[in-house]
Design goal:
Blueprint: E1 2-5, E2 11-14, E3 21-23, H1 27-40, E4 47-49, H2 50-59, H3 66-76, E5 83-85, H4 86-113, H5 123-132, H6 139-143
Antiparallel strand pairs: 1-2, 2-3, 4-5
Helix pairs in contact: 1-4, 2-3
InterPro entries: CALM/Myosin/TropC-like (IPR050230), EF-hand-dom_pair (IPR011992), EF_hand_dom (IPR002048)
Domain EF-hand: 28-63, 64-99, 101-136
Organism: Trichobilharzia regenti (Nasal bird schistosome)
């Protein structure tokens, strides 16, 4: 596996067998997520419910539907009890934080290309961006 940095400087990990890009959490981020998990796990059982997962996701700025939560619980609940342990919670949060990071990177790239703040990307803007990156692409490639 190789790693690189995204536009915001966060480490990302590329899995060669898939096209997935996964954020690698640092020690502080993992510690913060463990602390959040413990706050959600009021009983101290080491497990949280889908409702508690929804609270955590909303705190991160996501607005998951009931179907989203059911799907996440299904994918990260090996015992099929409707409960998620810290490992599953960490996987879900890493996935969601990666999605958020990728979206932020796309928005940042769009804003860089949209130098007149029109909210639109034209062929000339794309050409200018490619030239700034040292790419030499012919007009036909841009039209595709």
């Amino acid at each position: 596996m190789s790693s690189s940095r995204n536009i915001s400087g966060s480490k990302i990990k590329k899995n060669k067998s898939k096209t997935d890009v996964k954020l690698i959490l640092n020690t502080n981020q993992k510690r913060d997520l463990l602390e959040a998990f413990k706050l959600l796990d009021k009983e101290g059982s080491g497990l949280i419910t889908g409702r508690e997962l929804k609270v955590a996701l909303r705190a991160l700025g996501f607005d998951p539907t009931a179907a989203d939560i059911r799907q996440l619980v299904l994918e990260h609940d090996p015992d099929n009890k409707g409960l998620i342990d810290f490992k599953g919670f960490l996987e879900i949060m890493t996935l969601k934080m990666t999605e958020k990071s990728e979206k932020a990177d796309l928005i940042k790239a769009f804003r860089i290309c949209d130098d007149d703040d029109s909210g639109k990307l034209t062929l000339s803007k794309l050409k200018r961006a490619a030239q700034l990156l040292g790419e030499d692409i012919n007009d036909e490639s841009y039209r595709k």
